[in-house]
Amino acid sequence: MKRQARINFDVDLTVDINLLRFELKKPDLDYPDTIDGKYYFTLSNKEKKLYRLFNHAFALQHSSQSKILNFSIDESL
User: Fold this and answer.
1) Are 55 and 17 in contact (CB under 8 A)?
2) 62-to-26, 40, 56, 67, 69 alpha-carbon distances in Å
3) Does residue 40 lie within any of the structural domains?
4) Could you tell me the CA-to-CA distances from 47 to 31, 32, 63, 66 in Å, in that order?
5) 32/21 Cα distance (integer angstroms)
6) Cα dist from 67 to 8, 21, 33, 42, whole Å
7) Total number of domains constituting the chain
8) pLDDT of amino acid 66
9) pLDDT tens-digit readout, 26-56
10) 1 assigned to some structural domain
11) Pick from 7, 8, 9, 38: which is nearest to 22 by CA?
């Protein structure tokens, strides 16, 4: 059996908003299924809550600056 560990951390990134992609949390005919960051930041706060970022790894790889905070490792899996 492979040994595994769970890694948790918070990250602070600086990313070009054109690289961000968001998807609807639940289907809604009034809103597009996916949008880019440029469109996302024109939405109201209420509309933003309908979406979630879905390209986390891409954003992490293409950030111009990043800082990892609150890093922890749990080996008791």
Assistant:
1) no
2) 27, 19, 10, 13, 18
3) yes
4) 9, 11, 25, 27
5) 12
6) 14, 21, 30, 26
7) 1
8) 87
9) 988 899 999 999 999 999 999 999 999 998 8
10) no
11) 38
Rounded to whole angstroms, the Cα distance separating 2 from 8 reads 19
Residues 56, 58, 63, 68, Cα dihedral to 10° = 40
DSSP-assigned beta bridge partners for residue 65:
14
Residue 5 lies in a domain: no
Flag whether 28 is in a domain.
yes
Q: Which residue range(s) make up the domain with 24?
A: 10-72
Confidence bin at 76 (pLDDT 50/70/90): confident
Q: Which residues contact 27 (CB under 8 A, 6 or more apart)?
A: 33
